Every structure is written in structure tokens, then in C-alpha cells.
Amino acid sequence: xxxxxxxxxxxxxxxxxxxxxxxxxxxxxxxxxxxxxxxxxxxxxxxxxxxxxxxxxxxxxxxxxxxxxxxxxxxxxxx
Length: 79
What we know:
The chain contains 2 helices and 2 strands. The chain has helices spanning about 30-45, 70-75; strands at about 10-20, 45-55. Strand 1, helix 1 and strand 2 (about 45-55) form a beta-alpha-beta unit. The mean pLDDT is about 90.
């Protein structure tokens, strides 16, 4: 009974969200966010299955309602 089951790889969607692409008031740019997320996923050996970029989207908008990320959490979650 000592058979081991291989775990499925973690699937990741990487990307960024910023509320204002026109200002620099101490915010991390969307390009830096996406690069950092990609590096993190690769370091963890996660399978990157997609990306999102929600620009000019307030943090008050829940992830499920964001234009680019939302579909990954709803109708595309099987991917």
C-alpha cells in the first residue's frame, strides 16, 4: 500500500493591476508586477497557464469583477 500519487502541478495566472497608469506616486508599475509574478511562479515550478493585465482598475474592484482577471476566476477556471 505504499504507492505514491504524483501531485498535479500548481497552475498559475500571472499579471498585474494598477489603479492609475498615469502617475508614479510610489506605485509599482504593472510591468514590474507581471515580471515579479512570473519570476515567483517559475521559482516555485508552477505551470503558467495565462496572464492578465488590469490597468486603471481600482483595488476596490474585487478580483472576480476585474475585466482581465475576472474571467480566469470564473468561466476560465478550468483552464
